[in-house]
Write a structure and sequence with these properties.
Helix content: 25-40%
CATH class of the largest domain: Alpha Beta
CATH topology of the largest domain: Aldehyde Dehydrogenase, Chain A, domain 1
CATH architecture of the largest domain: 3-Layer(aba) Sandwich
Distance between the termini: 67 Å
CATH superfamily of the largest domain: Aldehyde Dehydrogenase, Chain A, domain 1
Oligomer: single chain
Number of helices: 16
Strand order of the largest sheet: 15-16-17-14-13-19-20
Shape: globular
Radius of gyration: 23 Å
């Protein structure tokens, strides 16, 4: 039985509330452990520790010293690689190979990339004339914002948490992390690494709990938190934005999506199927950038649907330690009920179920897990719920189209604007489409490639702000202008 404690001011603590909540395995429903539930007292203690760190040695460190510590944190994650893999598998139920080849290495890489970015991205300077003819020089400097509230999702816990924590710390801020109540493991474990490599106490804090009337709500309301960054559903982001309005605090949000893949008749089928097979079903469809709407040019439509069906049916659900497992469970029973409700609604709305649509038969030792089948539909109306609402499960609707203008209208007919993928060997067409689709990131003949120096974020209801490279520095620092009379 694992005990997930808060990590406040460099020490693990159960807090003062005495409350705990259960953490259960997504792949078999077994009890993993108990997590301490934080309240106002724990959040207040974390804020005080973070503000003290900003006044202490952390606030006086040079950029080079902080950069060296960020690299040490990355090395610490790598040194304890197996521990992080085990913790993330236990929390998410996803296959070991996904943890080992993507999620954990990317978590460590986030610290390395921002250790470099913070040292190598310049600010601006201008020389200006003055009435006496001697001139003046203006230059900008970056200063940390202060205490950052980091509210994390459960679908890729370490990767998405460090995507925010790494630049925040590299810029000299202190952080208070509120992990998802579904996935407390790696955020807690990272506290051990912070102590092992000598990050000053109070710089990295973790408070476990829920949202409203718990740790998440109290963190977003706390006047001692200078900015808030959040990845999760749009409804929660709206609530956080309302709380952040008190004190006019900055927010950075990556929110929901209903992402499209657009497949032209001249697309390379092998490349397209590999990419869409991953984008629709990876992590059991629990990827913010995943594809739930696929538009295929009519001459290729039947062939594509048959090939994607074959790919979906080849996925093998199983335990995370099984080398043959290629498909994991959903995060919770509650989320499974949501996904299955969309499966039922799609059928009620007239969908043709190409494959899936239900719950797979699993061996007895896995029967208590949150399993659903990878699912493909055709034939739904453009205004149906499964076509328009974010499901966040391993499913997609495939629809034919005839012209560029038609598919541009279809792809943009959503309140979301996170990502899209375009598949064609005609690069002129690809460039036209990329400019026309209203999303934050468009992939051409690929999916999920991320250069961490480039801007990342959503438009419309999919988010506010951009992260990555200099764009993360712009959120986690305040630019100050210095004017020197010559």
């Amino acid at each position: 039985m694992t005990q997930f404690m808060h990590f406040i001011d460099g020490a693990f603590t159960a807090g003062t509330s005495g409350k705990t909540f259960e953490c259960r395995s997504p792949h078999n429903g077994a009890l993993i452990g108990l997590a301490a539930e934080g309240g106002r007292a724990e959040v207040d203690a974390a804020v005080q520790a973070a503000r003290a760190a900003m006044r202490g040695p952390w606030g006086r460190m040079s950029v080079e010293e902080r950069s060296d510590l960020m690299r040490a944190v990355a090395d610490g994650i790598t040194r304890r690689f197996d521990d992080f893999v085990a913790a993330e598998m236990a929390d998410t139920g996803q296959p070991r190979k996904m943890m080992e080849h993507a999620f954990i290495p990317r978590g460590a890489a986030n610290f390395k990339i921002f250790a470099d970015v913070v040292k190598n991205v310049a600010t601006e300077s201008f020389q200006m004339p003055t009435p006496d003819g001697r001139g003046a020089l203006n230059y900008a400097i970056r200063k940390p914002k202060g205490v950052i509230g980091v509210i994390c999702p459960w679908n890729a816990p370490l990767l998405l948490m460090t995507w925010k924590v790494a630049p925040a710390l590299a810029c000299g801020n202190a952080v208070i992390v509120k992990p998802s109540e579904e996935t407390p493991g790696t955020a807690t474990l990272l506290g051990e690494v912070m102590n092992e490599v000598g990050v000053p106490r109070g710089v990295y804090n973790v408070v476990h709990g829920f949202g409203p009337n718990s740790a998440g709500g109290f963190l977003t309301e706390h006047a001692g938190v200078d900015a808030i960054t959040f990845t999760g559903e749009t409804r929660t982001g709206t609530a956080i934005m309302k709380a952040a309005a008190e004190g006019l605090r900055d927010v950075s949000f990556e929110l929901g999506g209903k992402n499209s893949a657009i497949v032209f008749a001249d697309a390379d089928m092998d490349v397209t199927l590999e990419a869409i097979g991953r984008s629709a079903f990876l992590n059991c469809g629990q990827v913010c950038l995943g594809t739930e709407r696929v538009f295929v040019e009519r001459p290729l439509f039947e062939r594509f649907v048959a090939a994607l069906k074959e790919r979906a049916e080849a996925l093998k659900p199983g335990g995370p330690e099984d080398a043959g497992t290629s498909f994991g469970p959903l995060i919770s029973q509650e989320h499974r009920e949501k996904v299955l409700s969309y499966y039922a609604r799609a059928v009620a709305d007239g969908a043709t179920v190409v494959t899936g649509g239900g719950v797979p038969e699993m061996p007895e030792e896995l029967a208590g897990g949150n399993w659903v089948q990878p699912t493909i539909w055709t034939g739904l109306a453009d205004d149906s719920a499964a076509v328009n609402e974010e499901i966040f499960g391993p499913c997609c609707h495939v629809r034919p189209f005839d012209t560029e203008d038609e598919v541009i209208g279809l792809a943009n007919d959503t309140e979301y604007g996170l990502s899209a993928s375009i598949f064609t060997t005609d690069l002129s067409c690809a460039h036209r489409m990329a400019e026309a689709i209203d999303v934050g990131i468009t992939w051409i003949n690929s999916w999920f490639l991320r250069d961490l120096r480039t801007p990342f974020g959503g438009s419309k209801h999919s988010g506010i702000g951009r992260e990555g490279g200099v764009h993360s520095l712009e959120f986690y620092t305040e630019l100050r202008n210095v004017c020197v009379k010559l």
